[in-house]
Amino acid sequence: MEDKSCSVQLQGGSRGREIAPSAGLHKSLESWPSPWILAPSTGQRLDWEVVFGRKAPVVLDLGAGEGSFSLAYSVRHPGKNIMAVERKAERARKAASRAQRLGLDHVKVLHCDIGYFLRCFVPPSSIWEIHLLFPDPWPKRRHAKRRLITPAFVSDVVLALLPGGFVRFVTDQAFYFEQAVEHFGRQKELQPEKEEVGSFPPSKFETIFLAQGLPVYRAIWRKIGGVLEQELPCALSGISVR
Length: 242
What we know:
Keywords: Methyltransferase, S-adenosyl-L-methionine, Transferase, tRNA processing. By secondary structure, the protein is α/β, with parallel strands linked by helices.
C-alpha cells in the first residue's frame, strides 16, 4: 500500500521546508560532483546495487553536513557503501566535492529531508548501519515537533534496518539523549549495545565539543536477529575477515 505522505511534490514541504531538490535545482545539479545522486520520483525506492554499482552493506549518514564522518568512515571501510544525506544543499555539495576529490567511489551524496528520505526512498530491511550524529536538538519546547528523533522516525529506522544491523545516535544535549533512549527503547526489535572507544571516527561537531571539554552522549541499538558484521560472507560485504 502506497504511503500517502510520500506522494507530496518533491519541491516543497510544509511551511516551505525543502524536502528534496526542486526541478530547477535538479537541472543545475547534473554538472555537480559525481558522488551526487538525484532523488528518485515519488513512490520509488532506491536500488542500492544500482546506486553504488556493486553489492555491499549500506551505511546511512543522516544529516551528514559537509561529510566529515562519511568520508573518514569510508576510508576505514572501503568494503561498505556509504550514503550521506544532507538537507542543506551547499553542505551536501561540499561533501560530494570532497568525496570526488578523494576518489571515494563507494560514497554517494543526496540532498533531501532526512525523515522523508528514510520513509519514502529506503527499501525495508536494506540498511546495515544508520548514523545520527548531532541532529539539531531544537531545545525550545515550542520547537519540539521539529526534532528528528520521534516515535514515527524511530519506527522508520527499525523498518529500514536489516536484522543484525544497528542505529547509532550521538548528541551533546542530555535532554535529547534521554528522549532518544526512551523512543528507541520502546522498540522491541532493538537491543542496546555499548559503543567501543575508537570504533568510529569523530564527526566535525564531536571534535569541536570534545576539544571544549563538553560532554558527548552516545548510544547504539542493534536490530535483533540476523548475523554480526564479522559473520557476513566476504562475497557480500567486501570486508576482510581475519
